[in-house]
## 1
Amino acid sequence: MSQLQQVLKDEQDTVINLKGSVAIVSEFFYYAINSILYQRGIYQPETFKRESKYGLTVLTTTDEGLIAYLNQIMAQMSTWLTDGKVQRLVVVVSGVDSGETLERWQFQVSVEDQGDTSAVGSDENDPMNAPKITKPASKKKVKEVHNEIQAIIRQITASVTFLPLLNELCSFDLLVYTNKDAVVPKKWEDSDPRYIINSQEVKLRSFSTSVHKVDSLVTYKEADEWDL
């Protein structure tokens, strides 16, 4: 076994602490968003490149502006995840001309109870006295989590088989739901939920790091309800 192979094996066998869980969840969001943008044709296919991740070939954007935007979002998400402030991330797909919400990809985040009453505490020096996640390392291995994530990415890839065609030029927005006491950057704006009236819903798989759990689902507007 080569040194590189050993390093990769060691990484896969590593148990997950809070920092590792935050990295895994943030990375999943990045690849999931990219997969949605590619599969739903929000960006042209030639603006994506192939990467190997989670035992799959995934596609990620080469658009520098989009990369910078997503990296900025993921950096902020990492901060909120560390502090236990994130409730869910929603990818909203809407028609450019109609302005109508056509799809909502929702990723619900919860902090897992590991049965340790001292796992979540408060910092007395924090002016907001906000709860801090101080959970011990989970017994779950990175490889196990990656296998669960792989199943979700496969479902996103297969979404073209059950979602209606997007018959107009579409754009996307990212909505992040946080606790009320979360510190929000000044450049971020409030948004309405962008719900879809009389929507259909497909629940996707979930994954757990034993520190965080992410449940996924997509809601969409029925094709015969569109104003074509």
## 2
Amino acid sequence: MNVFSCSEQDLHAYVDGRADETLHRQIEAYLASNPEAASEVERLRLERQRLRAALENMPASAIPPRLDPFRIRRELRARSQRRMAVAASLVLTLSLGTLGGWQLRDMSMRQTYLPMADATQAYRLFATDDMAQKVDMKTSEPAQLQGWLNRHFVQAASLPDFSAYGFKPVGGRLMASDKGAAAMVLYQNDQGQAIVYYVRPPGELLNFGAGNRRDGNLLTQYWRQGRYFYAVVSPTDNPATLPVQKAVEPGQT
């Protein structure tokens, strides 16, 4: 059984007397069982009567086409549809603007972000005269430090061996990053000079390759291996660290 579905266009045709006999009967049956639709038809009829009453004293030749009741209703519907289209386009524009704003924000952050800045900061905070007292894991045994790293990082890279350049590990310390745990391992030579080896997980904006950057008298050399980013931070005004810097130069790690 087909259920008649009455559209707004059908209702206007019914009120204006433009519905054929079959449609007319269908609409009357529909209105008999739909009080809300019947009320709408009555409103349309009253509107049509008011328009006719306002125009009945005017000569037919003086009635401009723009005052035709059917044309007026049609233009009102078209105007409503245009408003809806404008509203939809505004919503789309705002959505795209918001998305574009976040993209610009990410681009700005990428442009201003200093790779492995936290590694550089860790050196300034902990590579001091009393550095040995600031570590969580105090040992000079590379195997113990490697085990310590492996407990906190999945498939961490092997701890670098700088003993050929006079630097040996003295301990490690857990750090915090925006994406989870980070860690540093302090190395020291016989003169008490220090370098820092740093490990951290990647963040949302940390999508960079191997490289290096200078911050004051510190050189931060960084690279990615497997799951993590790594860095070695060392002073540039100390001849003892030059061999380490050459060994860690991107492409050598």
## 3
Amino acid sequence: MVIRMDDIHTPTVASGPTLNRYSNGVAKEKMTFKQLTDEKDRLEGELSALSAVLDSHGVNMNTGLTTFDGYPRADIDVAQIRTTRARIIHIRNDYKALMSRIELAVQAQFAENASRPSQSTTTMSQSTTSSTNIPPQQAAPSTPFAKVNSVVDGSPAAEAGLRAQDLITRFGGATWLNHDKLSKVAEVVNQNEGRPIAISIKRGEETLSMALTPRRNWGGRGMLGCHLLPI
């Protein structure tokens, strides 16, 4: 890895993912869901350790490393901080790519679970001659109950793909019927720290599904890194 020294504060690194194989040598295309989540835990552990290195110097990813007259600061290990920052950027890229693969697996499970009630409804409607309306519970996932007001760069929410102005229609088990002023969302987050939560959103005319993994030590406040407003 080559790091240019034209900007002492921000190392220049590749923007894409660097993770080609699982940590035990398994190609990422052949990872099982368990291996994917194990790798997620490993990357989160490394990110936490790297963040601790920055904390030990009293700096973060944006702290200036030069004096007022442009010389490297003598009170900190500038070389170690730059190397640590570069590694964090690489790991974040790997983590984002990994979460995309986990998201696909979660979406498949989410779709399978969502199809079960509709199958029961179809069977019931075929076995009866009476005409009934679709209960409101079945419409719940398509009704927004929260708006994403803001998303912090590099946060779990950003890595999952959430954007400001997205409308949340399902957040794990929380829907417009039971979110209780978003307290249900907080409950889902606290119960799933370190585990992907299947969420559904509306973005303009699109309906999207994604996986969001709440975690601490990502470099900001809370476990999501986004601000939600009830609708």
